[in-house]
Structure formats: structure tokens, C-alpha cells
Amino acid sequence: MDHLDRLEAQSVYILREAYKEFKNLVMLWSIGKDSTVLLWLARKAFFGHVPFPLLHIDTHFKMPEMIAYRDRAAKEWRLNIVYGENKEALEKKLTYPDGNLDRLGCCKNLKTEALKHTLSGEWPRWRFDHNLGQYAPDTNQEAYTGVIVGVRADEEGSRSKERVFSPRDAQNDWDVGDQPPELWRQYKTDFAPGTHLRIHPLLEWTELNIWEYVEREKIPIIDLYFDQGTGQRCRSLGCWPCTGKVDSTAKTVPEIIEELKTGKFANIAERSGRAQDKEGGGGLEALRRQGYM
Amino acid sequence: MFDQQRMNIVIVGHVDHGKSTVIGRLLADTGSLPQGKLEAVKQQCLANARPFEYAFLLDALKDEQAQGITIDAARCFFKSNKRHYIVLDAPGHIEFLKNMVTGAATAEAALLVIDAKEGVQENTKRHGYLVSMLGIKKLVVLVNKMDLVENSQEAFERTVAEYTAFLAKLNLEPIAFIPASARSGENIVSPSETMPWYHGKTVLGQLDALEPEGETEKIKAPLRFPVQDVYKFTAQGDDRRIFAGTLESGQVSVGDEVAFLPSGKQSRIASVEAFNEGPKTTAQAGQAVGFTLTTQVYIPQGELMVKVNEVQPIQARRFRANLFWMGKAPLIQGKDYKLKLATRRVPVRLVEVLNVLDASDLRSVVGKQMVERHDVGECLFETLKPIAFDPSALIDATGRFVLVDDFEIAGGGIILEKVESKETVDQAHVRKREQAWSTGYISAANRAAACLHHAKFVVFSGPPEVGKRKMAMELERRLFMERRNVYYLSDANLNGGLDQDIRVLMRDKSEEVRRLGELARIMTDAGLIFITALGGADEYDLLQLKTLNLPNEILVVHVGENPPEQFKADLVLPAGIDPKEAAEKVYQLMSRYQILEYFI
Ligand SMILES: Nc1nc2c(ncn2[C@@H]2O[C@H](COP(=O)(O)OP(=O)(O)OP(=O)(O)O)[C@@H](O)[C@H]2O)c(=O)[nH]1
Ligand SMILES: [Mg+2]
Predict the structure, then answer these.
(1) What are the entry keywords (chain A) (predicted)?
(2) Which of A236, B72, B153, B456 lies 20 to 30 angstroms, CA to CA, from B398?
(3) Among the partner residues B6, B215, B408, nearest to A3 by beta-carbon distance
(4) A19 at the B interface (CB within 8 A)?
(5) Nearest in space to B350 (alpha carbons), one of B323, B388, B373, B387
(6) pTM higher than 0.90
């Protein structure tokens, strides 16, 4: 087995463990490369099926290509896809692009708050109806208590300290100082009522591993990651007002792999294109403590 | 040649001996840090008027930087000319031992750091012990802060001698001892000029020289495939019944004859299933796969699949194990814990503490009947249901386990051997209970004579929605019409009452079963024919009910598919038969067994 085989087997094991132990399970899908690999791994784990819903938080500032890609995949792979949003903040224009908030505040509103209330079932959810071919209000309002997320330890300091099965309390708070032990392949799967859980099957993957796997499995990936003739591409995808591009002429997956290996980006943080991380002292740790993923 | 395979290593040792600094240097000196990160952290330190520490590169949490210690293990990635590494930076403070264990449990090699000036300390030893127990076979010892002992070879040799002696007690032989000064980078990535007397490898050189764990040995070992789950995605139009899991060892091919333990059921591999891969006919250690079988067998998750023609694992309920404890409350007798071994989950009890060690000096603490936080001990355990395992020295994945106490993983252990016993914990309990049992002036015989029948505990078991409860209720009616002393108890009443405190807490049935067994003992003592229906119980639960109800008798009626095989039901009825007819059949059986012998 090569290093990708091992990473794959490990993630598959984690996904199956999560599916076995939790009833109200959901997987976050941001359309980015990591969560798309995660989605692929779920299809591996469950032999072509994805036996839980995928949740997408629509900030309405995502690049239009992302939404188109999402709905195409939903149809093609017959995914059970659900989305949620912060309707109030959008209506009142409490966002950064509208000029009413700083970047961090905007992230908190459109992502963290939207996610929190969509997970809990307090805010409306929209589910893709495969018969109608469009989204319809979701009748299921049960809270999702297990959330599968594609974070990787190499992305940023606080993510490097995550557990594979990471409990949060009902307020979504993360007690970083007192995390459960994980031994061999035994994770924390017993919970007091009211506990929420994040599951991280990709913790040990690096950015390079992600691309190597995309290449090996021929996973269809959104074009925004490739240079389409402008000499620039996205390395990490978010909302268009806060997602910078990097100078790169990589037009294919092998070219991206080559670029990551030979050092052009080897020494530049992956999220450096994400402007919100740079605001305020705590950056991503502060966002994450509030429930950002 | 560059090795594509990545190696996981953990850095352990006493608090403040320089672990995070070692990693910080490794990252910085191999050029693995993001551009500008080093400068940014230095700038930050300057701005806050505090000395720069390499540890700040890893101790990313605000609290960690404020207190200057590592709280949680961080995963760091770096690359040498030889291979990729993940390094886990374990905290040295005793308070965070569970984080250290988490970091170490997945590592293939450990780098243990000792401060040359402070020498071997409590956690230097404790971590050494845990490294050996967690099954990490490659240990490299780094004697750090050599600058504080004037780079003296003598001081180095003293530490080497002291620690070698300690490790010898654990049968652990380190691969190397390396003198180093992490802060200034001596012997970390580049060789030191201040210690010309040392001719060995640098830390990085030594890591690169480690042989990665080969797969061949694991593949050659007997097949161990813990069934993680059984899938049938019928709603998605998929009729395959797939047994999913990860091969811990061995290999298996289509056509191989396999057995599932502890149930003992056998079948043959029909296919190896995978998504987005070409057809497969074989699978081997390390792979997460799925199988279909040639015959329809009912296998619950948690069973261990093995090949029938290979060395079999051990099956037992009682075993001896080495264990370390991280729980806030101590490990004690008389309490049910949950054992997780591979994919199996069963209730387990501590039978006896054989020996408790103070892990920091390996001295035994005598006469202790509990294992406290941060202790390690040798204990005797008994599971409520049989388990299949291997001694950890033979196959580690099926020889180690964790214990869950009130939702938390509180201990980890490795199994040494199976232990024979004349009596289970339950049997011993019943024996003592019966010795002390007292009644009023009315004996069981008095009651039987007056009511014209014996007492009996009648249990209807089986999968959900087969009509168990209706049948139980009809049986009650049938007997009541004849003025028998009979009572049907609906399990819903227990859930809302007697078991109300455990319903939310336990997903395992063991405590419910125990209480029902004790209740049955009382009800049958009152001379009743006590009837209930119990969903989701397996044969070991029934066996436990039987034991707890002693000296009175039990009658088990199984309704539906998959009747118990080892502990036989007295009667098996098909799902959904007319409840009256079912009740009549049970009634006939009771007459035949002469429970109703006074009936004329
Ligand atoms: N003089 C000297 N000091 C060192 C050396 N290496 C580390 N230190 C200092 O020792 C102190 C502790 O270092 P850390 O790397 O934080 O120690 P640690 O082992 O990670 O500590 P915990 O994670 O809290 O257990 C820091 O002030 C370091 O600068 C060295 O080679 N020489
Ligand atoms: Mg440290």
C-alpha cells in the first residue's frame, strides 16, 4: 500500500465509525477540494452511496461556478443535499461586501451563525428534490448532532490540535484544553445527551496529498482551482470578495502537484489568500472557537 | 532514494525538557515552515517584549503561549531528503497525560527528550513506560540542553547509563542516544561542533535511518477482520449485503472459508467489494474493504472474521491485562465499564487488581484494589459476553483495548492471556446473594401448593416487530383465565420507571438486563409466572437473565429470525403468527414441563 492507500483506508474507517455510531449525521460540503475529496471517500466507504445528507452553507457570495458545480454533482451522484443561509443578515445587508461589517464579522454572520442555526434546525433548510430537479423546503427539522468536516491539521495551528472525533457542547464551544484521548483506532463515541460532535476524517492529509488523490482517483474538481488563461488560480475557495488568487499557470492537477512539490508554494501558507484570517489577533482560532469550521 | 511512505513519530519526555523546541528546530532547519512564519513569530515576541521560543511555532493556542507549555499534542508535517514525517508534539505535563497518549498511540517511533541538567525525571520514566505499552518499538533518546552542562561527555554518559538501566526493566532497548542542544540547533539537523567527542548521527539523520514498518509481516499473519458494520443499501437499489471493515492482519481471497467469532458462524467469501476500483479477488492487511458471502448468515457488527484453516484467536470472558488509567474516577470493582476491542463493544468488570505500579519508578504499590489516574496496573477482567482476541504480543490490533467509563475513554490496555475460572462474576454474585436470601414464613412450596403451579420467568425475545408483546399478553390472559398467579410486565413501564435513570445514558442493554434479572428473581420468589418481552437481547443477555433469576426457572420463547444458537431457546416461533396461537403453544409447553403440574 502506498501513502495514499493508507490515508484512504484510515479515512474510510473513520467515516464508517461515524456512520455506525451516530444517527443525526451530516457532512459539510463547501465544494472546495478538501470536502470534495471527503465526499469521494464517503462513496468509497459506503460502496458508491452516501448514506447521510450533505450540508452546504450558502453565503450568496460564493462564486456562481461553485453553486452550478454543486447542483450538477447532486444530480449526477444522486446526493441528498441540503443548504442553509443567514436570511436575516442577507436581507439587512449585514455583510462585508455591503460595506456594513468587517471581514471577520461577515464570516461570523454568513458562515458561523448560518451553520449553527441550520445544524440545530432552527432556521429553514432547503433540500434538493430529485423528482422536481430543484430545491424545496426541508421538512426534517431535527438537529444534526454529528458533523463530518474536511479540516486538515496542516492548514493552521489550532487545526493541528484537533481530535478525529471532537466533542462540542450545545453552544458549539470547543474546549481545546480538555479533549478526549484517542488510542490506537478507538475514538470517543459515547456521549452525554446534548453533546455535539465534529468528525475529522482528513486530519492527517496534507494539501499535496489531496491533489495526489484527486489525480489518482480522477475526481472531478471545480475549474476555479486551475489557471484559465489569466495566469492566476485559487488555492483555497471561499466567498469571492475575500478569496484572493495566486499567480500560477497550473492548468491541470499534475501541474498543481508539481507546483506544490517543487516549492513555489511549498513555503506559502495555503489560506494566505483568505483575507479574514489576517484580521484581529486570534484569526482562525478565534473564529473556530465560535464554531467556524 | 526518497521514500513516499510517511512516518509518524512522537516526541515525549518530561515537562520543559525541550520537546517543542526540538520540533521547532526540525521544522525551521528543514525549511518546512511557511514563508515568513519564523519572522512573524519573532516579530510578535519582540512586540510583546518576551524572548522568542521555537516552541511558539507549535504551541499555537493562546493559553499555551501565555503559560509557555504545551497543552495539546500538535501534528506537524515536515519533509527531509528521505521522507515525509508527521511529528506529534506531546505535552510533558502530567496533567495532560491523555493528550500525550493520544499523540503517541499512532506513532511508529518515539523520540524521548531528557534535559541533560535536570536528568531523568518522573515523566521521563512514565513516558518511557507508556511508549513500551503503546507498542512503539522504535525509541530514540535525545539528551538535550547539553549547553547547560558545558557539552560534557561525562554528563551525557551519566544520563545514558541511568536511563538505559530504567529501560532495561521494560525490556526496551533504545536505538540511539543523541546529545543535542535544541535551542541552538546542535545535532538536530546539522552536526554539532561543540561536541566533537560525539560521532553518531544527528536527530534528523537518525530519524531518516529508521526502517519503516514493513507490511509483509502483517500480511503473513493470520487473518483478523473485525466486522465494523454490515451494509445493505436497498433503498438505493443495491442488494449487496456487505460486511465492511479493515483487515488488521493477514489476507483473504474469494472462495476462502471464513468463520465469525464469537458466534462461530461460517461461510465463504463470495466477492471483495470496492468503489472506483477494478474487480478485486483478494484483500490484505491494512485495507478498508467489504465482502459479500456465499450464504445468508446473520452476523452482528463487532464479530471477528478469521479464516478457518489458520491459527484461531482465543475466545474467553476472563483475561489478564496490563493497563494504564487516565480517568478522573479510579477503576474499581463492582462497576460496569465498556470494553472496546477492535470493533467489539461489550460490558466488562474489573475482577481483581493484581499489581499496581507507580509508572515513574516501576515500584509496586501493594494491596491496592483500584487503579487511580496515571497509575499503571496488571488486572483481571471479565466481560459479560465472550470476546475473541489475541495476546497483544502476537497480534497487537486484536490484543489491545480501551475502557470507557461514563462516556469517556478512561483506560487503555494490552491483553496478556486468557484466564480460566470456576465461576463468573455473576455466578459469584448469585451464590452470595442466595446465601443471604431470606423469606417470610411462606416457602416456595407453600405458594406452589396454594396456587397450583410453580413460579416461572417467561421471556419473549426476538427482533423488533415480530409480535412478541401481543403474544406475551395473550399468554398472560390464557393463564389468568385459569386463575393462575400470573403477571405480564411491559418493558415500557420499566423504561419510564425503574430504568428511567439509565435509559438516556446507556446505549448498551447490560444494566437493563441486570435489573430485569434481579427483578425476576423477586417476582418469581413471590410465586408468580412472570412474563415479559425483551427486544434487542442476544443470547448472552438471556444467559445472564437465567443466572440472575436462579434458583428459579426461566423459559425463553424466541420469536422471528436468528434464534440464539449456543444458549437454546425453549421454543422458537415464526414472526407474526397469531398471538393466541402462540400463547397456546407456550401454554402447552408449560403443561408438558409440568410447571402447571397441579392442573387437573
Ligand atoms: N539552554 C537550553 N535551553 C533549551 C534548549 N532547548 C530548549 N530549551 C528551553 O527549555 C524551555 C522549554 O522548552 P520547550 O520546548 O517548551 O519544552 P517542552 O518539553 O516542549 O515542554 P512541555 O511541552 O510543556 O512539556 C524553553 O525555554 C526552551 O527555550 C537547549 O538546548 N538549551
Ligand atoms: Mg512542548
Answers:
(1) ATP-binding, Nucleotide-binding, Nucleotidyltransferase, Transferase
(2) B72
(3) B6
(4) yes
(5) B323
(6) no
